[in-house]
Amino acid sequence: MMIKAVIVEDSRLARNELKELLKKHKDIELLGEAENVDQGFELIKETNPDLLFLDINMPEKDGFELLEMLDEVPITIFTTAFDEYAIKSFEYNALDYLLKPINQKRFDKSIEKVQGTLQETQNGVTTNAPEARLHLQSQIFIKDGEKCWLLKIGEISHFEIVGNYTRVFFQDQKPMLYKSLQQVEDKLPQEQFFRVSRQQIVNIGFIKEVIPWFNGKLKLSMQNGDEIEVSRRQSYLFKDKLSL
């Protein structure tokens, strides 16, 4: 399995160090490198890599801002010279972090994680979804205030419109995503997510119970305890989708 990778790092010396470390790994193809966030964003859009080596502390925009710009986030290994950033990266659920200067043994262990994660992801990906859409294993990045998350689409139970933004529900969290609900819906896998009303989209896998409601409508009891009302029109479509 060939792994496509890119480097986003403002230091030329650090980029060269990573390229030298990659020479040992013939199954990794380096598609390109960028020295700032804007260049990195364009590079990732053009190449659609499996793996991103990302410097956290860069001038103007940092690595977290780059992740916020992406609709889908590749497997990410943070590179940093600062311990506090390395610790913080775990809050983002990054696959791994590498402290500069990076030694070969530590780098090789990180690549082993990448290989295992990619194998799990490929096993869980359905191939019949349109390419423009995400799949359940796709990662998205959410930043709300000082808190940040890197999570898989399949881990999200539902979405709810809040003005021009969208609230995302997963585990016991409900941060804001700075995209409209329509923008979110356009990217979601249709076989798993359903628009129950103008206000909400649900992940069918997180529905605990479907309850008959007034005027032909349905109410959904979610695994986290939330109750979501399905509009009358969408209730008919929902019954058809689930063959109820």
From TrEMBL:
Matching InterPro entries: CheY-like_superfamily, LytR-like, LytTR_DNA-bd_dom, Sig_transdc_resp-reg_receiver
GO MF term set: DNA binding; phosphorelay response regulator activity
Modified residues (4-aspartylphosphate): 55
Record key words, sorted: DNA-binding, Phosphoprotein
Domain HTH LytTR-type, first and last residues per copy: 140-244
Domain (Response regulatory) ranges: 4-115
Coiled coil (residue ranges): none
SUPFAM superfamilies linked to this entry: CheY-like
Taxonomic superkingdom: Bacteria
PANTHER family referenced in this protein's UniProt entry, alphabetically: STAGE 0 SPORULATION PROTEIN A HOMOLOG, TRANSCRIPTIONAL REGULATOR-RELATED
Protein name stated in the entry: DNA-binding response regulator
Organism: Croceivirga radicis
Taxonomic lineage: Bacteria, Pseudomonadati, Bacteroidota, Flavobacteriia, Flavobacteriales
